[in-house]
Amino acid sequence: MKIASHSDITEAVQPLLSPECEHSAEDRGAPNGSISGAVFNISTTMIGAGIMSVPATMKVLGIVPGFLVILLVALVTDVTVEFMLRYTSSGKSTTYAGMMGESFGSVGSLAVKICVLITNFGILIIYLIILGDVLCGNESNGTTHLGVLQEWFGIHWWTSRAFTLLIIALFIMLPLVMLRRVDSLRYTSAISILLALVFLAICSSMAFSALLSGKTQSLRMVPDFSLVTVLDLFTTIPVFVTGFGFHVNVHPIRAEIGKVTHMGKAVKISLVICVVVYFAIGFFAYLLFGDSIMPDVLVNFDQNSNTHVGRLLNDIVRISYALHLALVFPIMNYSLRINIDELIFSNKNKPPLASDTPRFVSLTLSLLVLTYLVAVAIPNIWYFFQFLGSTTVVCTSFIFPAAIVLRDMHGISKTKDRVIAISVIVFAVGTSGIAIWTNLNPGDG
């Protein structure tokens, strides 16, 4: 099925910036974001914590269905982002919440803000928890897993979770979250993608090495229904929905790239990159660990090796992934900060957030401090992560964009668009409902 291309988007584009944002543009100069910068930022948003759970989905789905599900979610993502770009171009709003407000009033705007707040704040906390687990270890089911720092230097106060995360927050994350333009993060995003590729390269090299020595696991091409049920298959879809869910960053990146056609090109390039990365990591990690693979693939690398090279590779994998998440953090924080500011400071007389230094600094510091405190106080909130892809993420990624098309306040939807939108909503609601039911009633599977 051919999806309407971005060239079909009306050329009568409204000004990218609202009146309050125009003032900000004068301060910062005209939009000058590059396509490459947009690709790096979009790809970094997608290749986040979801990368850890992809290999486990291959164990459930099998290789062939796993690839098809990745491709399906990527195609639906492309469709829904195009919907957002088209209706942003035809409307006056330059934010996700504003776009929903044009179609559904204050209720729609509030729904987006709440979903973004829950999703992004939860993901930021999870990123810090993962960093703590990788560097400082954790305890699961009575088993203690040492972190990289504890393996290297032993257990001390300065290798504890609280102190290590404090140092990371102060010296890595704080300078990045203080940047006021999302395009300024393009270099750290590029490094983040490079670290993800390092993770992939090492995982694939270890898999090839195991293959040559005859130590690889047998791969399952299709689901083994003696081990899983049909309903279990649906629990994997939210993992990919969470992975591809960058919709909350569409508007900030679009506003800085300038041309909507460039944004469409950047989205397609990013989706291709992420499909390749997700499938490759899922395939090679599954080939390496087989049915012993854990929901968090990093746990599989947290194993003692008989060789110095093996231990070194395990440490490089974990450290590269930890640094990757640390560099993804500011991208997710950017959209969260904008939505919280829009939720709290809705007074139009206030200057844009980026040009109001006291408001920008106080909100940024408050978010970082709160995220740090929750991550230290609650070392394990994986149950929350499991439901993100089935609830708030699926709303912002699939349901809300499709609903805007069906509402069609600007009269630009075609019959094909409405059919696709209905199909997206049915797909999103159906798979998420089954996933939630299966997670709440595991004994029924």
UniProtKB/TrEMBL annotation:
<feature type="transmembrane region" description="Helical">
    <location>
        <begin position="384"/>
        <end position="406"/>
    </location>
</feature>
<feature type="transmembrane region" description="Helical">
    <location>
        <begin position="162"/>
        <end position="179"/>
    </location>
</feature>
<keyword id="KW-0029">Amino-acid transport</keyword>
<keyword id="KW-1133">Transmembrane helix</keyword>
<dbReference type="InterPro" id="IPR013057">
    <property type="entry name" value="AA_transpt_TM"/>
</dbReference>
<feature type="transmembrane region" description="Helical">
    <location>
        <begin position="38"/>
        <end position="57"/>
    </location>
</feature>
<dbReference type="GO" id="GO:0015179">
    <property type="term" value="F:L-amino acid transmembrane transporter activity"/>
</dbReference>
<feature type="transmembrane region" description="Helical">
    <location>
        <begin position="418"/>
        <end position="440"/>
    </location>
</feature>
<keyword id="KW-0812">Transmembrane</keyword>
<feature type="transmembrane region" description="Helical">
    <location>
        <begin position="63"/>
        <end position="85"/>
    </location>
</feature>
<feature type="transmembrane region" description="Helical">
    <location>
        <begin position="225"/>
        <end position="248"/>
    </location>
</feature>
<keyword id="KW-0813">Transport</keyword>
<feature type="domain" description="Amino acid transporter transmembrane">
    <location>
        <begin position="33"/>
        <end position="435"/>
    </location>
</feature>
<feature type="transmembrane region" description="Helical">
    <location>
        <begin position="269"/>
        <end position="289"/>
    </location>
</feature>
<feature type="transmembrane region" description="Helical">
    <location>
        <begin position="106"/>
        <end position="130"/>
    </location>
</feature>
<feature type="transmembrane region" description="Helical">
    <location>
        <begin position="191"/>
        <end position="213"/>
    </location>
</feature>
<dbReference type="Pfam" id="PF01490">
    <property type="entry name" value="Aa_trans"/>
</dbReference>
<keyword id="KW-0472">Membrane</keyword>
<feature type="transmembrane region" description="Helical">
    <location>
        <begin position="321"/>
        <end position="340"/>
    </location>
</feature>
<feature type="transmembrane region" description="Helical">
    <location>
        <begin position="360"/>
        <end position="378"/>
    </location>
</feature>
<protein>
    <recommendedName>
        <fullName>Amino acid transporter transmembrane domain-containing protein</fullName>
    </recommendedName>
</protein>
<dbReference type="GO" id="GO:0031090">
    <property type="term" value="C:organelle membrane"/>
</dbReference>
